[in-house]
Amino acid sequence: xxxxxxxxxxxxxxxxxxxxxxxxxxxxxxxxxxxxxxxxxxxxxxxxxxxxxxxxxxxxxxxxxxxxxxxxxxxxxxxxxxxxxxxxxxxxxxxxxx
Length: 98
Description:
This protein has strands at 2-9, 26-27, 31-33, 37-38, 48-53, 57-62, 74-75, 82-85, 91-96. Strands 1, 2, 3, 5 and 8 form a five-stranded antiparallel sheet that branches. 0% of the residues lie in helices and 40% in strands. The protein is mostly beta strands and 98 residues long.
């Protein structure tokens, strides 16, 4: 079983680097997963999220019924936080890497 931590952001940091402006909008309740598991919906001001996880994972972003599969992009947990652009109201789902 793995856990993913998600922080929501409204803006990116200065200078064009892949960083977000702290403080973030909120830290979501961590998502624990082996099989597919979704996050809570992103807030109305969220445009970016940062993800860190305790194990390698695959993810998918979409509506409330989003499902992650091992065919989705694989992320290595040792790589540090992953920043991605999202839309308010979307969800992210995780599944443990195969």
